[in-house]
Design brief:
AmpG_permease/AT-1, membrane, mainly alpha, MFS
Length: 457
């Protein structure tokens, strides 16, 4: 038997219970609900790079200026504002979809349909000739993708029992990262494959994005195979007599007022914004850096898909191990420091030049440490969401704030890289982690982590 410890934020094993065997541990990951969450994690991770790093490679190959490329981080604005319409997802019904599939599954299928359409529209644009339409298409992808994230996060929390939360969280994060790798390295390989058939580069990129749109169907099939969470069914029944406006108002006001009433709420929100900023600042420019250094698109894709994938999976489960073994604050220190220091491997790569081994080392370090930081960060966000009545809206608020660093603060990364050069740029990426560690120290001294409820992962 395992029980969450409200004081440390770790999951403790009772002394009188026998240790679970490896077979039992593996069996948890094979539970139908956990497998559903795993495939939904892939569906959530897939679209992010299509309006981010993969799009930046396409733009760089099309000859777009580095400063303009950096500004394209702003198309991720919906990821920072999704909490504004999260109460709508919590409270409103989608005509036809909700009646046929239920409250959560209806929104899942509806958002995935819109996402496929948005990716296809982005595929029809040309960065060299119409950057405005590229930005518009990327904005639509980000909007529909962030809406899917709202639903998937709520579905994950509501569908998994306590005994499967840990396996569900680890599976979700690992699959999310795999989805991102498929839409980066996988997309680049697909584009190269189309280009090798003799079609133009612009057409190759178009068809590459069409394939990515088809990949969203994995999430659609998963949503069709899933069952509506019991908590969602009960919530739907309990609010059936309320008007749509009343449901939206209750979801919005309750979530925000409850969170802001907590001690040191603003400091905690600032920490959420800054914790992954070091990752976001460097990640915005990693792909253009590798291309500028002289590596081919296929070199980058092969290493990201090979050692990068392995490092991501190992790092994700390493983060899960840390979250179970050590207090939450200690885990955040470990994740915050290692994900920042990993940027130095790219500074070293800038001096080494086009060495396949050096690139493999840098990508491995980035993916391994980023995965550790992500899993621990998800554990922290889950610990902040204590009221199941507002889980979807609160989680959307927190993940939206976490995206501020990736979207707004990192939008100047291209100009910084242009002014400083690549070696110094990645040193700066390490330094931007300092504010989050200062906040972590302050929150720890204020007893913030002792006041959190059980970590629901």
């Amino acid at each position: 038997m395992t029980a969450p410890d409200a004081t440390t934020g770790t999951v403790q094993t009772s002394a009188d219970a026998p240790a679970a065997s490896w077979r039992d541990s593996l069996a948890v990951y094979l539970q139908p609900r956990v497998l559903i969450v795993l495939f939904l994690g892939f569906s959530s991770g897939l679209p992010l790079a299509l309006s981010g790093s993969t799009l930046l490679v396409w733009m760089r190959e099309a000859g777009v200026d580095l400063g303009t490329i950096g500004l394209f981080a702003l198309v991720g604005t919906p990821y920072t504002l999704k909490f504004l319409w999260a109460p709508l997802v919590d409270a409103l019904h989608v005509p036809l979809f909700t009646r046929a599939f239920g409250r959560r599954r209806g929104w899942l299928l509806f958002s995935q349909l819109l996402l496929i359409i948005a990716i296809l529209l982005l595929a029809l644009t040309d960065p060299a000739r119409s950057p405005f339409y590229v930005a518009l298409g990327a904005l639509l992808v980000a909007t529909t993708s962030s809406t899917q994230d709202i639903v998937v996060d709520a579905f994950r929390v509501e569908s998994l029992p306590e005994s499967e939360q840990a396996a569900g969280m680890a599976s979700y994060v690992a699959a999310y990262r795999i989805g991102m790798l498929v839409s980066t390295a996988g997309a680049l390989f697909i584009v190269s494959g189309f280009e090798s058939t003799g079609i133009s580069r612009t057409s190759a990129w178009m068809w590459g994005y069409v394939v990515m749109a088809a990949m969203v169907l994995i999430g659609t099939i998963t949503a069709l195979a899933a069952t509506e969470p019991e908590q969602s069914v009960r919530a739907e029944a309990a609010t059936q007599a309320d008007t749509a406006f009343a449901r939206v108002l209750h979801a919005a006001i309750g979530a925000f007022s409850e969170f802001l009433a907590r001690k040191d709420a603003l400091a905690a929100l600032a920490f959420v914004v800054l914790f992954k900023f070091t990752d976001a600042f460097s990640g915005t420019m990693t792909a253009p850096f590798v291309i500028d250094l002289g590596f081919s698109r296929n070199d980058y894709a092969a290493i990201v898909k090979g050692v990068g994938l392995a490092a991501t999976l190992i790092g994700g489960f390493a983060g899960g191990f840390l979250a179970r073994r050590y207090p939450l604050a200690t885990c955040l220190w470990i994740g915050g420091v290692v994900q920042a220091l990993a940027n130095l491997s790219f500074s070293w790569l800038a001096f080494v030049g086009t060495s396949q081994w050096a690139l493999a080392f840098a990508i491995t370090a980035e993916n391994f440490t980023s995965a550790i930081g992500t899993v621990i960060f998800v554990a922290y966000l889950s610990a902040l969401c204590q009221n199941p009545l507002h889980t979807a809206t609160q989680y959307a608020l927190l993940t939206a704030l976490a995206a501020v660093g990736r979207t707004y603060l990192s939008s100047v990364a291209g100009y910084v890289a242009k002014a400083t050069g690549w070696p110094l740029f990645f040193v700066i990426c390490v330094l931007v982690a300092i504010p989050s560690l200062v906040l972590l120290t302050w929150l720890q001294k204020r007893g913030h982590f002792e006041e959190l409820g059980p970590v629901r992962v």
